[in-house]
């Protein structure tokens, strides 16, 4: 199947946007971060570019899963299920409020594989975000995987019994904490109780209409999940936010992550960070309530924590509710 799409490799598209205040305020509200008065020139948080360059496909152009139909930029892979498998980023300069930006996207690879769950097609897209003065701000590679249809086991409910429309109707909670293990390794852990509202708000912020994140009936009866799926980018955002909130002034040079298993809204999960490599490397992950890893990542810092002249202090922060 991969050879069928070789002609798609090298395709490009360009998008323009401006770093504005409204999506940053929305992200802070969704994650329960303290509100702030954004000013022109303020540095946007890492991964805020995912709030920009929305792909505003017309309603009639959407497929059954809520994504734009393939065959325009992405190849027309016939496998129905789509996931963001992982990515790699290099941060050169921060995005700042008011920056006019151009994103150039290039399809760099299409590869078919067979796995334990059936046929898979991996598509890699490279992005470059450039400021209007020509400065390259960040480079990114995204790995998108397409999979076969799920095998759904039909469950007949007893008469009069109604399926739950939402296992978590209360507000989600994000609870950061600071931990040091017995060996002296610096670690942090954040506990998150997700909700359908949190996933819906993040979908709205990123203009992501993939139905697995907000349409419970579709997610369970068509895609075969046992709940709504927590976005991969949302997990990655929580991971880097834990790092930057725990290490004030940290200079993140690169970040890579990959998904290992779906994370669902039906149970709490944790976000973890651990310093390695003399403070130059931070291992990150999300884990479900059973302790299984859902996503793992590595962030590399520009300065060693153990050699910093300004003396980093690590302080516990109080829980913040997410509406």
From TrEMBL:
Q: Which domain of life is it from?
A: Bacteria
Q: Which PANTHER family match?
A: HYDROXYACYL-THIOESTER DEHYDRATASE TYPE 2, MITOCHONDRIAL
Output the InterPro entries linked to this UniProt entry: FAS1-like_DH_region (IPR039569), HotDog_dom_sf (IPR029069), Mitochondrial_HTD2 (IPR052741)
Name the chain's protein. Answer: MaoC family dehydratase N-terminal domain-containing protein
SUPFAM superfamilies xrefs: Thioesterase/thiol ester dehydrase-isomerase
Q: What is the lineage of its organism?
A: Bacteria, Pseudomonadati, Pseudomonadota, Betaproteobacteria, Burkholderiales
Q: Which Pfam families match?
A: FAS1_DH_region
User: What residues does the FAS1-like dehydratase domain cover?
Assistant: 75-135
């Amino acid at each position: 199947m991969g050879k069928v799409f070789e002609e798609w490799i090298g395709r490009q598209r360009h998008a323009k946007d401006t770093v504005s205040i409204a999506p940053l305020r929305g992200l802070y509200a969704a994650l329960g971060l303290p509100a702030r008065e954004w000013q022109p020139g303020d540095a946007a948080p890492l991964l805020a570019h995912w709030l920009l360059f929305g792909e505003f496909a017309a309603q009639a152009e959407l497929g059954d899963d809520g994504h734009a139909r393939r065959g325009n930029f992405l190849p027309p892979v016939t496998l129905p299920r789509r996931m963001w498998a992982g990515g790699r980023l290099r941060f050169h300069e921060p995005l700042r409020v008011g920056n006019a930006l151009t994103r150039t996207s290039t399809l760099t690879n299409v590869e078919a594989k067979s796995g334990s769950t059936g046929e898979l097609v991996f598509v890699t897209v490279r992005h470059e975000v450039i400021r209007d003065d020509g400065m390259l701000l960040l480079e990114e590679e995204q790995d998108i995987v397409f999979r076969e249809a799920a095998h759904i086991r039909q469950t007949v409910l007893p008469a009069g019994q109604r399926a739950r429309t939402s296992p978590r109707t209360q507000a989600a909670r994000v609870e950061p904490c600071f931990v040091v293990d017995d060996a002296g390794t610096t670690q942090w852990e954040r506990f998150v109780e997700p909700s359908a509202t949190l996933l819906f708000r993040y979908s709205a912020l990123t203009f992501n209409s993939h139905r697995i994140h907000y349409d419970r009936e579709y997610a369970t009866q068509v895609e075969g999940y046992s709940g709504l799926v927590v976005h991969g980018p949302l997990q990655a955002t929580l991971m880097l936010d834990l790092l930057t909130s725990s290490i004030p002034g940290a200079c993140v040079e690169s970040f890579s992550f990959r998904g290992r298993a779906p994370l669902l809204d039906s149970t709490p999960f944790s976000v973890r960070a651990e310093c390695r490599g003399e403070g130059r490397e931070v291992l990150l992950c999300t884990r479900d309530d059973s302790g299984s890893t859902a996503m793992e990542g590595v962030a590399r810092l520009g300065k060693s924590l153990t050699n910093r002249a300004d003396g980093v202090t690590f302080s516990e922060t109080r829980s913040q509710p997410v509406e």
